[in-house]
Amino acid sequence: MPSPYDADTTAPHGRPLMTRALTREADRARHLLAGGRWRPTAPDTEAATAVLARLTAPLPARQAPTERRLAVARDRRLQRILRTTLHHLDAGAVSPPAAALFAAVARALLPWHAHPNPPPAAAAPAHTAAPHPPGRAPTPPTEAGEALLPALFTTLAAPPPPGTAPLTPAAEPWHARHEGRRYGRPGPGVWTAETVGCPGCGGTTGPWTVVCDWQAITLGRACGTATREHGLAFSEVWLLKPDG
Predict the structure, then answer these.
(1) What is the pLDDT of residues 5-16, one digit of tens each?
(2) Are 21 and 243 within 8 A, CB to CB?
(3) How far is CA 10 from CA 17, 70, 111, 122, 143, in A?
(4) pLDDT per residue as tens digits for the range 162-220
(5) In 3D, which of 218, 213, 234 has the Cα closest to residue 106?
(6) CA distances from 239 to 19, 31, 86, 113, 116 (A)
(7) Phi/psi of residue 163, each to 5°?
(8) E strand or H helix at 46
């Protein structure tokens, strides 16, 4: 059974990678941090530290670094970055601004999600810490995350200044539509789908109306029932939204 994730696992010269949300959320995070309006919580720092370790991990050098071996190593690193990001995103412990940033990173790297033939690692989106200085050439496109937000995640992973308390800015809720199915992949090439049932009318026909405040997801049906008892993770809803 095909998964909805397959829509974004095409080669880079086919469907564009979803990077608009990442650019927006990365810029927002930088401004909030620089202005002192966001002082990350302990879960934010812990999650950022884990993602940063994946972002900056050196490529393995067990054998002679042929071009193919380097490409495979880079794709594996991107998959590890994505899995680490999704793990902390779906755990629900990070603050809303961190959840928005992690979700945007995951969306940009979605083509590498448990896929046997991900796009070449050189197609990974490049996001540098700041615009390049005048008179200097811009940073070239990253290969598998070498330039993927390391400065921003270094700031997020840094310990808080002494005597300061966490400060979390408000996050704007978002709305979406969801067909009401949960997808899984128990084995290579095998997809499963589980339908979310309505606790009010018992209906299973979507779509549901999704309302999310970055801390909890509420599903609503035409019968008027709204529920948070659905088992859907952030990634199962947010990653399927258009990259607007």
Answers:
(1) 333 333 444 456
(2) yes
(3) 9, 21, 7, 14, 17
(4) 999 999 998 788 888 877 776 666 666 666 767 777 888 887 777 888 888 888 888 88
(5) 234
(6) 12, 24, 10, 11, 19
(7) 80, 5
(8) helix 42-55
